[in-house]
Amino acid sequence: MGAPDKVTQDRRGDSVLIGDARSSSAESRLRNEPVQARSAARLSTLLDSAAAVVDEVGPERLTTAMVADRAGASIGTVYRYFPDRVAVIEGLANRALSRFLIKLEQEFDDRGDLTLGQLVDIIVATLVDFSRNEPGYRVLRFGDTVEARVTGGVETTESALARQLGELLRRHEPDLAFDDLAFQLQVALAMCEVLVHRAFVSDPDGDPRFIEEARTVAAGYLAGHSSRSV
């Protein structure tokens, strides 16, 4: 039997395991991809707990010990899935990204053919819904989580969202004509996120003036790079 893993402090001040348990795959920062229902439920509980902590103290002060305490789990359980606090933030970003795209696809499926203005309306409405209901999102957001990376550290969350949203739009609207769809969607998403975030700074329900301005600015920007009408 090998020597037990040791605990040390990483450069962010967070306790991390060293030894064999420090290894992680290139594809994901998750130590163990959940396969069985119990494992998936445990991971969901850890992420829910992490989101609650992030909402309270912000991502900079998040530690794996806080996640364990909030989840009522051992620190070893947290390390079974996440090698450090950054991996926890990445896990939250990945989950939010997945939920966001699923919600968008459902909305696209329900609407049929869409104008650019309707596409922007759906994106802004989903950002507003996330600001109100998605744990951790108002603090992390897609464009502000500097440390969060997806696809094995290759892309930022924001660029991954824009790329996957572009692929989703191509499937639903194959005649979309843009100079650089992924980049232009990333710019539009960044503008929308900033304005939607501002809408919630002083109004817990979201100031409708900023929300409407997000629609106007993003629709105008995309219309300037597309042959489709707004």
TrEMBL record:
Segments of this protein annotated with the region Disordered: 1-34
Classification via InterPro entries:
Homeodomain-like_sf (IPR009057), HTH-type_TetR-like_transc_reg (IPR050109), HTH_TetR (IPR001647), TetR_C_15 (IPR041669)
Where does the HTH tetR-type domain lie? 40-100
Q: Which residues bind DNA?
A: 63-82
Q: Which UniProt keywords apply?
A: DNA-binding, Transcription, Transcription regulation
Extract the GO molecular function terms from the UniProt entry: DNA-binding transcription factor activity; transcription cis-regulatory region binding
- Provide the coiled-coil residue spans: none
Q: Could you identify this protein by its name?
A: TetR/AcrR family transcriptional regulator
